[in-house]
Design brief:
By secondary structure, the protein is of the alpha+beta class. Helix content is 30%, strand content 23%. The longest helix is centred in the first third of the chain and has 21 residues. The relative contact order is 0.13. The model has no long low-confidence stretch (mean pLDDT 93). The structure holds 2,5-anhydro-1,6-di-O-phosphono-D-glucitol and manganese (II) ion (2 copies). 2,5-anhydro-1,6-di-O-phosphono-D-glucitol (AHG) binds next to strand 5.
């Protein structure tokens, strides 16, 4: 039996060696994130057993009901990341304002933004959920001072690393540091993430589309026509696409990246900015998909070029295989002209 000894930690440090100027801080950050991921994974796996299922009764800043595992994951990420000395600030989907590094800990040159638990409506049903993270270099001077909102509100093209963890039939950690996309599956016996998906490339053509079709009534005409188009047969057998929608963005996009597909959370007549958050969900997933050879747009613009104005701003997203995003972009022109 061949044993794969390329652990996530080793991969991160070997990647660092390719950059002579690297200080090792980004590697340390990614390593610390992988530790938080292991703890969250354990907790997710026993969610049906422990008294952790159910609502806390609180609403998060988006007015959605927060489940206990969301808060557990948020707390775990904060605790794993606050004292390493590499961060000057954090921001989380579950907290309104930026999160400061406690006074007694050193402040470093990076900021970390995260969606601690994505797809949380799926927790009780044993359906895949995830964590998403995004790392930027601070823009204020790296002089030991606390990070600011300005450090967090950078466009996605400034990300130095991004990743996600899917807690599914197994737990997988996928990351990019701007030099390809790599996936590591958690071996529950070793307690290590082992390289399972080397240099992931999304197929250029899509087979799958993922969108909440329950909102059809609210879609604009261009999007309605696009969905009808991909549901239609063509004479080369490339359509109709298959429909797959988990309701956990991270799991839907992970599957589509491996199989070829497009994930859409659109603007519609009720929600002109869609639902998903630019800083915690769309930018990191866009960075990963672009690194895998795909595209991510808000309908007309590249997601990663949007200048953010608010930590919690929402943005429509069309993300996945290049050919499919090119096509939907053509159909959406009609909606822009309205
Ligand atoms: P979160 O659990 O972090 O709030 O995110 C849920 C998001 C996303 O993961 C998913 O794709 C989308 O909500 C599903 O929304 P609908 O139920 O409106 O389809
Ligand atoms: Mn989410
Ligand atoms: Mn969430």
């Amino acid at each position: 039996m061949a044993i794969n000894f390329m652990t996530l930690t080793r991969h991160i440090y070997e990647g660092e060696k390719k950059h002579p100027g690297a200080t090792g801080e980004l590697s340390a950050l990614l390593h610390e994130l992988s530790l938080a991921a292991k703890v969250i994974s354990l907790e997710v796996n026993k969610a049906g057993l422990a008294d952790i299922i159910g609502f806390t009764g609180d609403n998060n800043v988006h007015g959605e009901q927060v489940k206990k595992l969301d808060m557990f994951s948020h707390d775990m990420l904060f605790k794993a990341m606050d004292h390493g000395g590499h961060l000057c600030a954090m921001a989380s989907e579950e907290e309104e304002d930026i999160i400061h590094i406690p006074d007694h800990h050193k402040k470093g040159k990076y900021v970390l933004l995260f969606d601690p638990l994505d797809g949380s409506s799926n927790i009780d049903a044993n359906v895949s959920i995830g964590t998403i993270f995004s790392i930027y270099k601070r823009i204020t001077p790296n002089d030991g001072s606390p990070g600011t909102l300005e450090d967090c509100l950078q466009p996605g093209i400034k990300q130095v690393a991004a990743g996600y963890i899917v807690y599914g039939s197994s737990t997988i950690f996928v990351y990019t540091a701007g030099d390809g996309v790599f996936g590591f599956t958690l071996d529950p016996a070793f307690g290590e993430f082992l390289l399972s998906h080397d240099n992931i490339k999304i197929p250029e053509k899509a087979w799958i589309y993922s969108i909440n079709e329950g909102n059809y009534k609210y879609w604009k005409p261009g999007l309605k026509k696009y969905i009808k188009y991909i549901q239609d047969a063509d004479n080369r057998g490339r359509r109709p696409y298959s429909s797959r929608y988990i309701g956990s963005m991270v799991a839907d996009i992970h599957r589509n990246m491996l199989y070829g597909g497009i994930f859409i959370y659109p603007a519609d007549i009720r929600s002109p900015n869609g639902k998903l958050r630019l800083m915690y969900e769309c930018n990191p997933m866009a960075f990963i998909i672009e690194q895998a050879g795909g595209r991510a747009i808000d309908g007309s613009k590249r997601i990663m070029e949007i200048q953010p104005s608010d930590l919690h701003q929402r943005v429509p997203i069309y993300i996945g295989s290049k050919e499919a995003v090119d096509k939907v972009e053509q159909f959406l022109k009609e909606d822009l002209e309205q």
